[in-house]
Specification:
With 420 residues, the protein is mainly alpha-helical. It has one domain (3-110, 152-285, 351-417). The protein has helices spanning 3-10, 12-41, 55-65, 72-77, 135-143, 148-161, 176-205, 207-210, 213-251, 255-292, 302-312, 335-344, 349-355, 378-383, 389-396, 404-417; strands spanning 45-46, 49-50, 78-83, 89-92, 100-105. The strands form two sheets. The protein has a three-stranded mixed beta sheet with strand order 3-5-4, sandwiched between helices. Strands 1-2 form a two-stranded antiparallel sheet. Helix 3 (55-65) packs across helix 6. The chain is globular.
């Protein structure tokens, strides 16, 4: 053994503790910068500039803030921004220096489906081969219109998750920033405890002298994965409690918030079910494309398809408004066209979204509760589809987040127990 190996063997415990303490300290100081980076990475852009929240969102936020004991400084901390995804996001804390970010889906700012710009929704694409006036297209536009009472509940819930204090002096034990720090530090702690387990195993059983290198590596890997698995289960149970508790605190503000919560989770279930159906359709199209092996190139223009659709449709004019509404055909695109678009489409946002596995066919979340999908740790990687299918299948057997159905049922039962 050389000098370096001897030094490492003598001081391995001290080095392991030093590395763990350094990693925890580094995560604490890096956390505010990570929050800002995450905020800008998921911000919706309008051309080259950040899309601003609508008057509807700003008005409701100002109204909701009156339900909380917030100082002027805390109100200035609160930063509402729009995201291109369909899930809300909270970063930071109202109880510590720095910003407190709330990210809302961009379409929550629309008062009605007629305000939604159709050119930004990528109709007639392989992942959504329907027109805006088709039945499925209309269902999509209708779902993008969130009721105002549901939006009030959502904004109040997100302020609670930032550890805002209600007028009844209720709050969560940890803010979103503390939750994130708890997650990353628990991962570091699981690695440290796994190392201590391996160290104790080597000292008591002399494992390196009894088994081969391959077997030793397999045992070490199993110990580390077991530590991460138990860490994931503990954090998942804690996040589940915080999700359910946040809903209870919001409902304590009044009956109108409970009704808004029921509307919101009913909407969330219908939204997830809608995209779960699109996921299955997209998988089937990809399977057919691979099975039929369409190699021919086809010249295709979605604008031309829309014009042809209008020409084939009968005009429907009303005497009151003379509004022209073309009759849309729900016929899917040709498989060769789909293959060409999948290879040439530079905007893979919707494609990647459909390839994710965040919820089941009933609309319930698989890995993380609503609003917790974008975070550090195993739940975040599972939610965005970064983990191999074998590991995802294993974790799905033990994953029990606060699903939208459970949160909806909780609000139903709170009618007599909490609301006065």
């Amino acid at each position: 053994m050389n000098k370096f190996s001897i030094f490492f063997a003598k001081h391995s415990q001290k080095l392991a503790l030093l590395c763990a303490a350094t990693a925890c300290s580094l995560s604490y100081y890096v956390q505010p910068y990570y929050e800002v980076l995450c905020r800008w990475s998921v911000t919706r852009l309008d051309v080259e500039w950040e899309a601003k929240p609508s008057e509807r969102i700003l008005r409701i936020t100002k109204e909701i803030c009156s339900q909380f004991n917030m100082t002027d400084y805390q109100k200035s901390q609160l930063d509402i921004f729009l995201t291109p995804v369909d899930e809300s996001l909270v970063l930071g804390s109202l109880r510590s220096p720095g910003y407190a970010f709330i990210g809302l889906p961009y379409f929550f700012g629309y008062e009605s489906p007629s305000e939604i710009p159709l050119d930004s929704l990528d109709f007639y694409r392989p992942y959504f081969p329907y027109g805006p006036f088709s039945k499925i297209g209309k269902d999509r536009l209708d779902l993008m219109n969130l009721p105002e009472s549901a939006l009030k509940f959502l904004i109040a819930r997100e302020i609670i998750r930032l550890q805002g204090v209600t007028i009844t002096d209720q709050k969560l034990p940890l803010s979103a920033r503390s939750q994130s720090l708890l997650t990353i530090n628990s991962i570091i702690g699981s690695f440290y405890l796994s190392y201590q387990t391996i160290f104790l195993l080597n000292r008591t059983t002399r494992l390196p002298l009894r088994v081969s290198i391959a077997s030793k590596l397999l045992i070490y890997t199993f110990i580390y994965l077991s530590g991460l698995f138990f860490q994931h289960q503990i954090i998942l149970a804690w996040r589940r409690y915080c999700c359910l508790r946040a809903d209870q605190i919001v409902c304590s503000l009044g009956e109108s918030f409970r009704q808004g919560g029921l509307q919101y989770y009913d909407w969330r279930l219908r939204w997830n079910q809608f995209w779960a159906e699109r996921q299955e359709e997209f998988k089937e199209r990809k399977r057919l494309i691979k099975a039929n092996n369409h190699d021919e190139t086809v010249s295709y223009d979605p604008v031309m398809k829309h014009q042809l659709e209008n020409e084939k449709s009968a005009e429907r004019n009303t005497t009151q408004t003379d509004y022209y509404l073309p009759k849309s055909e729900d016929a899917p695109l040709d498989l060769s066209v789909m293959k060409q678009q999948l290879s040439n489409d530079k905007n893979q946002t919707n494609t990647n979204y459909l390839q994710r596995n965040r919820f089941n066919v009933s609309g319930n979340e698989l890995w993380a509760g609503d609003g917790d999908g974008i975070n550090l740790g195993w739940t975040g990687m599972l939610a965005i589809g970064l983990m191999p299918r074998i590991i995802s299948s294993l974790f799905s057997l033990f994953s029990s987040p606060a699903t939208s159905s459970q949160r909806y049922n909780q609000l139903t039962e709170l009618e007599v127990k909490t609301i006065t």
